[in-house]
Amino acid sequence: MLLETDNLHVVVEGKEILKGINLSMEKGEVIAIMGHNASGKTTLVLTLAGFPRYIVSKGKIVFDGKDITNLTIYERAKLGIAVAFQSPPTIRGLRFGDMIAFAAGKNPWILKDSKFIEEILRKVDLEPSIYMDRELNVGFSGGERKRSELAQLFAMKPKLMILDEIDSGVDIDSLRILGNSLKNYIEENNCAVMIITHHRHILQYVKPNKVYIMSKGKIVLTGSYEELIPKIEALGYEALIKEVLKNELEG
Amino acid sequence: MSWKDRYRDLALQALTKRAAYGSDIDINKFIDKTEEKTMINDEIKNKVLEVGIELSQEKSGIYFQVDHSVVLSRVASNIKGLEILPIDEALLRYDWLKSYYWKAISVDQDKYTAIAELKSTKGYFIRAAPYTKISQPIQACLYIHSQGLLQAPHNIIIAEEGSEINIITGCTIGSKVNYGLHIGISEFYVKKNAKIIFTMVHSWNEGTYVRPRTGVIIEDGGVFISNYILLKPVRDLQAYPTAYLIGKDAKAKFNSIIYGSQDSIIDLGSRIILMNEGCSGESIFKVVATGNAKVYNRGQIIGQNRNTKGHLECRGMILCPTASIVAIPELIAEHSETELSHEAAIGKLQEEQLNYLMARGIPPDDAIGILVKGFLDPGLPGIPEILQSEIRKKIFTAIRR
C-alpha cells in the first residue's frame, strides 16, 4: 500500500471540513477524486501535503508504511508526495528554470549542466529558450501555470502525484498537452497519481482505476471509471448522490 | 592662509559636532596611524571578491587602498580619457581641483567630515574626459586591515560633459579585524549630459562603525544612479547622501538593497533636491531585517522648480519579531508644479509562497533564502547585465550563509 487514510477528520480555523475519509492507493495506481465545489477535495489535497492550517483532529495518514500525520510539508515532499496546486503563487525573482532545478534537488546557482531542465520543460511543451528565464508564474496564462506545475512535479520524481484541478482554467490545446505529458510520464515512471477534478476531461487521457466522489467532507461513492463517469455526466453530482442514497435506503 | 588651512580651521571647529542622524561615535577610540601596506595577499584578494572587486581581472581601471596605503591606482592601457589617481597626488597635479574639494559636502557638516579633513587618509580621484564613454566598470576598493583603524578617504569623481562611467566600489574589513571606523567622503560632479552609475557594495562585521558622507552635483541633462548594497552585519551605519540637481532635466536615482542581520543598526537614507526645471529623482529602498537588526530609511525629496518629479519607495520584509524597520519619508514641495509621491510597505514573508517552495522538497531555510533573494533582487534599472549578475551572486551568497 502506498497511501492510506484512516477515518481522517480535518479542522480548518475551528471548523470541521473533512469528516472521516478512508482512502487507499496502491503503488503506481491512478485514482480520481471528484465532487462538486466545496465538497472538501482541496482540503484533502492540502492535508495530505501537510499544510499547517489543516489540522488532523482524528485519524491518520500512512504513506509508504510510515505514519506521516505529523510530518511537515517539506518532510512529506522528501518522502515522495508532490502536489500540483490549483492556484500556484507567483514568485518574483525566482527563475522558472531555477525552480525546476530546486524541485529536482539541485542548486541552480552552482549547476554546470542545465540540459535536464530543458528536457523537463519540453515534456510539457514549454520552449526552454522562452520559459527558462521567466520569473515563476509571473504573467503565465492558466495553461502555462498548470504545465509549470506538472514540470516541477516531473522534476521531483515523486512516488505520488496529487493533481488538484490540473484541468481547470485551461484551453483544449493545453488540456491535450497536460493529458499526454501526464500519460507518458506515468507509463515511464510507474508513479501513483491522485487526480482531483470536476470533469472527466483529463481522465480521458489518464484513466483511473477507481473514482471517488466526495460530498460535504465525506467520500459518498466509490466505483470504477466506467460505472461512475457516465452517471455523473448524465445526472450531475447532486442528483447522482441523491439517487444512490435513495437506492441504498430502499435496498 | 592657504585654501587647505581654511578647511582645516573649519574642520577643527566642527570636531565635536554631532551628526543630524545616527548615534554619536567616540572617534578618539580609533587609531589613525598604521604601517605602509604594499602587498596584496590571498586573504585580501578573497575578501575583496566579496565586494565585487576582482584584482586578477583587468577592468577599465582600478584604485585599491589598504588602510591608508594606495596599493593600486591605474587605468588599463586600452582605455582613453580616464584618469585614476590618489586624491593627494591629484590635488598636487591639478590646481583647478581645489574648486571641487568640499564643494558638494561641507567640511564642517559634522565631526566625521571634520575628522576626514584633519586626518587626510587618502581616497581616490576619478575623472572621465568630455564625451568619453566607458562601459567596462572602474573598480575602487577601500580595505581596513588594521585593528581599530579610522579610515577616512576623500574621493572626488568627475564625469565631464557627455561622458559616461560605471564604478563599482567595494568597502570591506579584514577577517581578523574586530572593529574599525570607516568614513568615506565622496563628492560627485556630473556635468552636462554626463552619466555616472555608482555601485557600492559594503561588507563589514559586527564591530565596524560606518559613516559615509556623499554629495552629488548634477548639471543639465546629467544622470546619477547609485546602487548601494549591504548584505553583511555591521555594528552601526549611518548615511544620508544628498543629490543637488542644479541643471535642467537632471536625474538622480538611489537604489538600496539591505539585508540587516544580527545586531546591526542601519540608518540609511537619501536626499534629492530638484532645483531646476524638468529634474527628476527616485529612491527605491529594499530591506530585509532579521535577528535584532534595526533599520531606518529616511528619504527626502524637495521639489523646487517646475515640471519636477520625485518618488520615494520603501519595501521591507521582517523575518524575525526582534527586528525592526522604520520608514521616514519626507516630501517637500516648494513649487506649485512639482509632483512628488511616496510608497511604503513593510510586511512578513508570504506564507503561501513559503509552503509552496517547501512542497517542492526545498528545505525551510533555503525556501526563505529564495524568497528573500527574490524580494531584494527584482533587477536594478540602469545597470549593465554583467553588474546585475554580480549583484545577484552576492545576494545568494550572503543569504545562504
Overview of this protein structure:
The complex is a heterodimer of chains A (251) and B (401). Chain A is α/β, with parallel strands linked by helices. Chain A has a single domain (3-91, 158-250), classed as Rossmann fold (3-Layer(aba) Sandwich), CATH 3.40.50.300. Chain A is built from 9 helices and 12 strands. Chain A has helices at 41-49, 73-79, 96-103, 115-123, 128-131, 142-156, 172-189, 225-235, 237-250, and strands at 3-12, 15-25, 30-35, 54-63, 66-67, 81-84, 91-95, 135-136, 160-164, 192-197, 210-215, 218-223. In chain A, strands 6-9-10-3-11-12 form a 6-stranded mixed sheet, with helices on both faces. Chain A has a 4-stranded antiparallel sheet with strand order 2-1-4-5. A two-stranded antiparallel sheet of chain A has the order 7-8. In chain A, helix 4 (115-123) packs across helix 6 (142-156) and helix 6 (142-156) packs parallel to helix 7. The radius of gyration of chain A is 18 Å and the shape is globular. The mean pLDDT of chain A is 93. Chain B has 401 residues and is α/β, with parallel strands linked by helices. Helices cover 18% and strands 41% of the residues of chain B. Chain B is built from 7 helices and 23 strands. In chain B, strands 3, 4, 6, 7, 9, 10, 12, 13, 15, 16, 18, 20 and 22 form a 13-stranded mixed sheet that branches. In chain B, helix 1 (3-13) crosses helix 4 (111-119), helix 5 (351-358) packs across helix 6 and helix 6 packs antiparallel against helix 7. Chain B is globular, with a radius of gyration of 20 Å. The mean pLDDT of chain B is 91. Chain A binds chain B through residues 49-52, 72-74, 77-78, 82-83, 85, 88-89, 91-94, 99, 102-103, 105, 109, 135, 152, 156, and chain B through 350, 352-353, 355-364, 366-367, 370-371, 373-378, 393, 396.
